[in-house]
């Protein structure tokens, strides 16, 4: 009996699905795309209405031969690639190669790789969705036109090997605009006045508000000193006590964007790493006692929607493990923005009963951390709100007023399982206010005037840039990680610590794009193009019509740039480090893994070497300098300059101080409970908190 052939993208996915379908099915992997536009040429026939020229991807010949052989003897062939535009396009290409009629039921899809969903999918095949394919073709053709027509101009006038991308160029512009804001920022002085007050049992803080009739802004020292002089002799009387309640609702389950942001904030994962790990969890991991199991639902989504089955399973789990008080009183509905496609569920565990601790031994450390993050967030999203008791006290001091505010958690609710790590996530107030009554006179312990200066907007991190791209409608779930990787690999942006900083090259390319291709880097134009691509997917616009409209304006800008663009010189940063081969002063260059030193005598002298930052610490083993270094994957570590002669290294940042117990280097280490200082010597157990309290 001939078997049914099911084709997926990856061997891991094939392994998981094979387990569920049984012996009457043969599952094979296409190893991703099998056809694409050629790399050596644009591959778009502009004169023939932008017809794309697809070729077999180099190295895929054997894969295609194997699939053709299996398809010939199969009773049926089902194409089970990922449930999105990219997956639909892969299935469309496979159908053409294998002579499968795309209008017949040959396509199956599932949002999670579990037994029931896979078996149901096989029972409900459908034709290939032409509009989904065309939306992917439109994006691919648009990106190819921009990349292959602007890049040669950059090679000629700036530097060989550069590229311009339709969406990456907007991301570079956003980062450059923020850097310009920071450079142009002028700090403004302002002051605060804090009063430490006491009811003879508890000392608490009151913040200066102003007078009875208005709030006062404190702008200079003389104004503040005059007010402080009055306050030092004033009587502090409670004029109002207001008790209240505040609820904090749980965050919704993860979308692609929010997962990338949270994994970046909590674990320092790049968007690329997060998606790689998530793909592994989705396609299937060997779980002890179960075999290959898909642990999470599909990972490219902008929806927070959950199936009723998933919600009911979670609420039952919460009831049995935490009690009825912790079950959400209503099934919260998240209002979707106009850009959300809602084609898939949110990212969630395929079964809430598969707890992170149950599968920990079968996962790598990072797989476990990401799975736990997804599991925790999903469970928390179905739990009751946290409840805070709030207290606001008005205090009169002469003709001025202070306000004291505090809050305490009455019921933790969802926070029993998960707390969001976003910078603005509210926490329990540390200002403990005693029971006070109206008319009560308080004792002044201390007046603390403090000078401040307004701060410039922060540089983007990967997390905050993804959030901004999503808010502005730039890109879609599948594009965030490639955008971030590309702009760093091209040397337009470098990561300094956690923040993204434009390079000189990034500035030059951005200036060129703003001058000659203003539509390409216009945020509104790019967001509108995303909406039009969505309209292609829904069948409202023909994809070639969209490309034609774009090209009519783009070709005019391209012609103008070709006529007017001059040469741009990129000055190299000079150093006083001598090239040991020819004696020239070496210069700083930017590469895929950051900055490095190179001889300016290239191509006669091709000497290069790493550029390391001094950590300001002496090596405890040989007395050399400790340098800040990076692994090939970009992870920061600290090692001795005399490596390999000296093998000292540590992953944690040295403080510059010695351990009082053994004389080793003290390092900063991040733990779940906060940052600590500990000894780098593994045989020493010295640890203190960041404020030097013994742990």
Note the main attributes of this structure.
single chain; 695 residues; alpha+beta; Rossmann fold; Topoisomerase I, domain 2; Topoisomerase I, domain 3; 5 domains; six-stranded antiparallel beta barrel; four-stranded antiparallel sheet; 17 helices; globular
Describe the overall structure:
- This protein is of the alpha+beta class.
- The protein folds into 5 domains: 4-128, Rossmann fold; 137-184 and 458-564, Topoisomerase I, domain 2, CATH 1.10.460.10; 189-249 and 386-453, Topoisomerase I, domain 3; 256-381, Topoisomerase I, domain 4 (Orthogonal Bundle), CATH 1.10.290; 573-689, no CATH class.
- 34% of the residues lie in helices and 24% in strands.
- Helix 1 packs across helix 4, helix 3 (85-97) packs across helix 5 (130-157) and helix 6 (168-184) crosses helix 14.
């Amino acid at each position: 009996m001939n078997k049914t052939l099911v084709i997926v993208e990856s061997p891991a996915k094939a392994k998981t699905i094979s387990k569920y379908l049984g012996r009457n099915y043969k599952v094979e992997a296409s190893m991703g795309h099998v056809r694409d536009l050629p790399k050596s040429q644009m591959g778009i026939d502009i004169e023939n209405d932008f017809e794309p020229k697809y070729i077999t991807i180099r190295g895929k010949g054997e894969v295609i031969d194997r699939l053709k052989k299996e398809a010939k003897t199969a009773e049926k062939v089902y194409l089970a690639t990922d449930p999105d535009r990219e997956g639909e396009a892969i299935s469309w290409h496979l159908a053409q190669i294998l002579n499968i009629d795309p209008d017949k039921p040959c396509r199956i899809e599932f949002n999670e790789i579990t037994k029931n969903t896979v078996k149901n999918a096989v029972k409900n095949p459908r034709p290939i969705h032409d509009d989904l394919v065309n939306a992917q073709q439109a994006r691919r053709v648009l990106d190819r036109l921009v990349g292959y027509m602007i890049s040669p101009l950059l090679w000629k006038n700036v530097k060989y090997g550069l590229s311009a991308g339709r969406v990456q160029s907007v991301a570079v512009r956003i980062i450059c605009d923020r850097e310009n804001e920071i450079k142009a920022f002028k700090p403004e002085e302002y002051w605060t006045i804090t009063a430490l007050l006491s009811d003879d049992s508890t000392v608490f803080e009151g913040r200066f508000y102003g007078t009875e009739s208005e709030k006062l802004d404190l702008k200079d020292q003389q104004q503040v000193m005059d007010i402080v002089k009055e306050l030092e002799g004033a009587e502090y009387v409670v004029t109002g006590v207001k008790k209240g309640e505040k609820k904090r609702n749980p965050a919704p389950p993860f979308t692609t964007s929010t997962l990338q942001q949270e994994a970046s904030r909590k674990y320092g994962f790049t968007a690329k790493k997060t998606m790689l790990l998530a793909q592994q969890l989705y396609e299937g991991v060997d779980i002890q006692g179960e075999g290959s199991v898909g642990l999470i639902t599909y990972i490219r989504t902008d929806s927070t929607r959950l199936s009723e089955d998933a919600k009911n399973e979670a609420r039952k789990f919460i009831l049995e493990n935490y009690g009825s008080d912790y079950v959400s009183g209503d099934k919260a509905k998240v209002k979707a923005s106009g850009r959300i496609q809602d084609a898939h569920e949110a990212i969630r565990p395929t079964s809430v009963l598969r707890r992170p601790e149950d599968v920990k031994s079968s996962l790598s450390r990072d797989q476990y951390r990401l799975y736990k993050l997804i599991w925790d967030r999903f469970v928390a999203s179905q739990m009751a709100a946290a409840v805070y008791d709030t207290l606001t006290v008005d205090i009169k001091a002469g003709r001025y007023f202070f306000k004291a505010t505090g809050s305490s958690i009455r019921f933790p609710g969802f926070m029993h399982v998960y707390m969001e790590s976003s910078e603005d996530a509210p926490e329990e107030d540390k200002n403990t206010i005693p029971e006070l009554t109206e008319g009560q006179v308080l004792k002044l312990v201390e007046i603390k005037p403090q000078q401040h200066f307004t701060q410039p907007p922060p540089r983007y991190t990967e997390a905050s840039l993804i959030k901004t791209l999503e808010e502005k409608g730039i890109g879609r779930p599948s594009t965030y990680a490639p955008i971030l990787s590309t702009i760093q690999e091209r040397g337009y942006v470098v990561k300094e610590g956690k923040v993204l900083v434009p390079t000189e090259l990034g500035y030059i390319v951005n200036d060129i794009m703003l001058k000659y291709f203003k539509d390409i880097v216009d945020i509104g134009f790019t967001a509108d193009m995303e909406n039009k691509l969505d309209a292609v997917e829904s069948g409202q616009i023909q994809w070639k019509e969209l490309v034609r409209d774009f090209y009519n304006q783009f070709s005019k800008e391209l012609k103008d740039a070709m006529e007017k663009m001059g040469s741009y010189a990129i000055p190299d940063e000079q150093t006083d480090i001598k090239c040991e081969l020819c004696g020239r002063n070496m210069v700083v260059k930017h590469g895929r893994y950051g900055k490095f030193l190179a001889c300016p005598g290239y191509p006669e002298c091709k000497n290069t070497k790493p550029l390391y930052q001094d950590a300001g610490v002496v090596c405890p083993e040989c007395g050399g300098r400790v340098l800040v270094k990076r692994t090939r994957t970009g992870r920061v570590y600290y090692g001795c300059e005399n490596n390999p002669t000296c093998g000292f290294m540590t992953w944690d940042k040295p403080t510059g101080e010695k351990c009082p117990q053994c004389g080793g280097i003290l390092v900063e280490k991040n733990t779940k409970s906060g940052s600590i200082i500990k000894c780098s010597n593994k045989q020493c157990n010295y640890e203190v908190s960041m404020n030097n309290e013994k742990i």
